[in-house]
Write a structure and sequence with these properties.
This protein has 100 residues and is an alpha+beta fold. It is built from two helices and four strands. It has a four-stranded antiparallel sheet with strand order 2-3-1-4, covered by helices on one side. Strand 2 and strand 3 form a beta hairpin.
Amino acid sequence: KAVVSTQSTGPVLKSNVVLDIKPWDDETDLGEMEKAVRAIVMEGLTWGNSKLVEIGFGIKKLRMSTCIIDELVGLYDLEDKIQELEDFVQSVDIVSHNKI
C-alpha cells in the first residue's frame, strides 16, 4: 500500500510518453496486442491514442501515447510490463518523453 503524505510537496509532476511497441512478425495480431497493452494497469498511468506505423516488408508497429504521474509510474517498470507480453511484443522503444 502506498503511504499518502498529508503535507503538500508541490505540483504533481506528469509526463507524456510515446512508445513504439514492435511485434514479432507480420502475423502478430496488433489489435490483440493493443488490448493486452491497454490491460496493463498502474496507479498514475493513463493510456492515450494509438496508431499503427509501417516498419517495412508489411510489418507494422504499434505507437501508443500515455500520460504518467512521475512519482507513481516508473517508465522502465512500464517497459518491463509491456515486454512481459512475450506472445506479442518483441521490443519497446521510448519515442518521446516530455514533462508537462
